[in-house]
Write a structure and sequence with these properties.
Layout: H1 2-10, E1 16-17, H2 29-40, H3 53-67, E2 76-79, H4 82-93, E3 99-103, H5 108-116, E4 120-124, H6 136-142, E5 147-153, H7 165-175, E6 182-186, E7 211-216, E8 229-232, H8 235-248, H9 254-265, H10 269-290, E9 305-306, H11 327-338, E10 340-341, E11 343-344, E12 354-357, H12 362-377
Parallel strand pairs: 1-10, 3-4, 3-5, 5-6, 6-7
Antiparallel strand pairs: 2-8, 7-8, 9-12, 11-12
Helix pairs in contact: 2-9, 3-9, 4-5, 4-8, 6-7, 10-12, 11-12
């Protein structure tokens, strides 16, 4: 979609990008200043594979401050983005034929990483009716003797669903019956929340020692290009991730690591201000989507995406006679007719949906949704 959008722009079209997976904000000044200082102080050499000790200490500080969790440096591995953190964990855990349970919708990389490790993805389907969250009964039914791990995100990309503490407790009760299953909790959208502060499943009784928290600086600090991710998990698994990373990329960028200390230990005022803007955009996007006949959605509780059901438009015809058979077709129709870029839900395991990002300006959100409404009204 990004490539096609660029091609349309090159042809002179005004394309509005609602497919963005990153905050449209700049890095806070105090973090940039820390990076400049690191350059001046010549932090320019190879770094330890799991991260500088004081960077890992900053991660431990953050986890205690925000999540009430006590970790030591041996539990932390800093990587080149949370995607590498996830890859390290999956490659360390999953062997050929091992099963990894992933609720839908999910970030597409989850399934791809399991496939790279020659594991088997076991999907638990969710939908709008259940708020895109699984039940303990669904989890219990999905676990087999081959289950190696369970991987999920809360807040979720793409649905924005957030598991409440009591919902996580219901899942934890199932996991306690199956102690060999490792839980991989992707918490990258932790700060981008519109209700109660989310709880990490690792904070529940008996869960810390069998949970790997994956997080990073891309979303909450608008530091996507700085490529800083990290895990917190059992020491043996962290050591395995360190060994894998040592042969893949070795240590993460030195300057970005020094800035990470400031990001994770300073007050979160800039992140809070960013979320205030996301909150207003979220309200407006939900309002505009609900004004489009045929759209159904659950209001996102976190992240910066709306994930409406659009199957009411399947089977309808465009002006040129082409039929909208699925969400892929609908996304292409919206791009070519309305010049608005979105993402098909089939990429996330829910092919009846599309994902729209509100990590864009309010004027662009309003213009984009107006164009989408007009384009959909032309279908018959």
């Amino acid at each position: 979609m990004a490539k096609l959008g660029r091609e349309l722009r090159a042809q002179g079209h005004d394309v509005i990008d609602l497919s963005l997976g990153e905050p449209d904000f700049d890095v806070p000044d105090h973090i940039k200043e820390a990076a400049k200082k690191a350059v001046d102080e010549n932090w320019s050499h190879y770094t330890p594979v799991p991260g500088y000790v004081d960077v890992r200490e900053a991660v431990c500080h953050k986890l205690k401050r925000d999540n009430g969790l006590e970790y030591a440096c041996e539990n932390i591995v800093v990587s080149t983005g949370a995607k590498q953190s996830l890859a390290n964990v999956i490659l360390a855990l999953v062997d050929q034929g091992d099963e990894v349970i992933i609720p839908t919708p999910y970030w597409v990389t989850y399934a791809a990483l399991v496939q790279l490790a020659q594991g088997k993805v076991v999907e638990i389907k969710t939908d709008l009716a259940c708020g895109y969250k699984i039940t303990p009964e669904q989890l219990e039914a999905a676990i087999t003797p081959k289950t190696k791990a369970f991987m999920f995100s809360s807040p979720c990309n793409p649905s924005g669903a957030v598991y409440a503490k009591e919902e996580l407790e219901g899942l934890a009760e199932v996991f306690r019956k199956h102690p060999s299953v490792v839980v991989i909790s992707d918490e990258i959208y932790e700060y981008i929340i519109y209700g109660e502060k989310p709880v990490s499943i690792a904070a529940l009784e008996g869960m810390k020692d069998r949970t790997v928290i994956v997080n990073g600086l891309s979303k909450g600090f608008a530091m996507t290009g700085w490529r800083i991710g990290y895990i917190a998990g059992p020491a043996a698994l962290a050591k395995a991730c360190e060994k894998i990373q040592g042969q893949m990329t070795s240590g993460t960028n030195s300057v970005a690591q020094r800035a990470t200390i400031t990001a994770l230990t300073a007050p979160l005022d800039a992140s809070v201000a960013m979320v205030e803007q996301f909150t207003a955009r979220r309200a407006r996007m939900v309002e505009l989507l609900r004004g489009i006949a045929g759209m159904e959605l659950a209001e996102p509780d976190g992240a910066f995406y709306a994930f409406p059901r659009v199957d009411a438009f399947f089977g309808k015809k465009a002006a040129d006679g082409s039929v909208i058979a699925n969400a892929d077709d609908l996304c292409m129709y919206l791009l070519n007719t309305a010049h608005v870029s979105t993402v098909t839900g089939s990429a996330f395991g829910n092919p009846e949906c599309i994902r729209l990002s509100f990590a864009n300006s309010m004027p662009n959100i309003e213009k984009g949704l107006t164009r989408i409404k007009e384009a959909l009204e032309k279908l018959n």
